[in-house]
Amino acid sequence: AQSVTQLDSHVSVSEGTPVLLRCNYSSSYSPSLFWYVQHPNKGLQLLLKYTSAATLVKGINGFEAEFKKSETSFHLTKPSAHMSDAAEYFCVVTTSGGSYIPTFGRGTSLIVHP
Amino acid sequence: GAGVSQSPRYKVAKRGQDVALRCDPISGHVSLFWYQQALGQGPEFLTYFQNEAQLDKSGLPSDRFFAERPEGSVSTLKIQRTQQEDSAVYLCASSQGIGNEQYFGPGTRLTVT
Questions:
Q1: Predicted confidence (pLDDT) per residue in B26-38, tens digit
Q2: Which residues of A touch B93 (CB under 8 A)?
Q3: What is the number of other CB atoms lying within 10 angstroms of the CB of residue A62?
């Protein structure tokens, strides 16, 4: 069984300040973890993925995430928010020993103030 | 190259009508997923194809939902006798294989009145 919890439904930051979107997962097997972004009326776009290589993963648009097995976390960070980062973000888990069917979190809405 | 496309982008159906939603995956992608995304929620898995074979349909909410991919490329999600609770965005995604990165289409927003 697998599950993912996004700890914040909304995160509000000022432009130029750091972003932290939190994600915890549960998995019976070795997980693969993904972060996707969804802009209004657009398809989901992959930001980054962890598949058992380096625990610090760098993605597009300056985002990165760190896989912490001891904390079962995969938090998404960015040093400096841009207005264009305002969107919905989804954390996703799949498992190598399971069915590979992805499980999505409920999403975190990132609001960026000027 | 072209990404995943879905049609129609918006569909309004009266309760009881049948609808068909189309997905054109990226050429060469063997895996195809359908998801349902309710307002304010994350996408939820409906069904999965490997080429033309439907390997998992455990997420289909009722026997009114049916999906097919007869030639291993284009897929159609059909909903019979639509109900109000079927109102959602239906997302299609394709990938080179199970466990690989998924590429999503823009979705079809279905509203049942």
A1: 999 999 999 999 9
A2: 44
A3: 15
